[in-house]
Amino acid sequence: xxxxxxxxxxxxGLVYDATENVPEMLAGGQVSIYTGFDATADSLHVGHMVPxxxxxxxxxxxxxxxxxxxxxxxxxxxxSGRTSERQLxxxxxxxxxxxxxxxxxxxxxxxxxxxxxxxxxxxxxxxxSLNLVDFLRDTGKHFTVNAMISKDSVRMRLxxxxxxxxxxxxxxxxxxxxxxxxxDHFNCTLQAGGSDQWGNITAGVELIRRVRGKPAxxxxxxxxxxxxxxxxxxxxxxxxxxxxxxxxxxxxxxxxLNTDDRDVxxxxxxxxxxxxxxxxxxxxxxxxxxxxxxxxxxxASEMTRMVHDETALRKAEQASQVLFGGEVAGLSAAEVAxxxxxxxxxxISAERFQGEGLPVADLLMECGVVPSKGExxxxxxxxxxxxxxxxxxxxxxxxxxxxxxxxxxxxxxxxRKNYWLVRVRP
Length: 426
Prior knowledge:
This protein is α/β, with parallel strands linked by helices.
């Protein structure tokens, strides 16, 4: 790879701020870099992906990435970006969350390479055994309350009526101690994270300078925003998670596919492994052929393949075509429910499809597709009715259990875009 890791991050627009020594550090020999991830849920979400993928980029340039699972700090709660106290979790819940997150990290970091193997550590291993008095004497004395309350994350909370607890106020000390511990035990000299972490990270840089008399660096990435003013990583259904149990690959694919033209080029730079020339070609496509949405389709495919796999991507692409008349066969009931979650739906007993089956005109009327059986027959004869995205050619056709998808659903369509989902109850 040409250039330095810092140059790579800079052309992608990922350098929000950095201490002055960082460009030289990343252009020199191998550097150990750490980024922390909280364990307040059993999955990471797309908001975590900028620092995650950035760690992967740094590893590709020969540096050593250290992912720190916040088993200890998650018991305290980071006040950054919060307007109220976090709910405290039990140690058992946090440990369970970390086990789930570990599997997701392997999509971005290489834990098997021999030269610069990625490391995953849990700060509970050193934080939970700290002696309070020793910690306050050896670490706390290097922090002034004046400096701590000047940090944006703290000052914002002090201005609110409910304030900030001493628990969350102490978070900066613990994160700084993490940096010192990693410096001592893993030769870590650079911490990276979102721009809201600048105060915490530079506090750790200062702690290493005071306690060890050695230089360390800080690098922060921009917090991703959307041009339309809505929050990145949120949909009507909530956060977009990396776990397929929380956000299906289809919904994940759709999130990226629906990216605004004004944001898509930036997202290609931030989130994908595509090089500068490929991104430039897709940028030209946005400018010249926006209706084809080439950049969005490439973004959605790259992200779905990265976070899930090739099979999940193919399924997501198939599912995305279903709403445009694509093949329904081969989809599971869960996938059908996901795709048609927002269309009108109704229920019919499975008994109605036994024996000779239910006349199609009856089904259309009972589901509200047409007002009468006669209208249903005429709609079929006109060629405008589809069952499971296949045209019904016979007005006298009967629907049987064999037509029911995965024993649970039927998909009706009138015309090109008017869908109804029929739930078949036992």
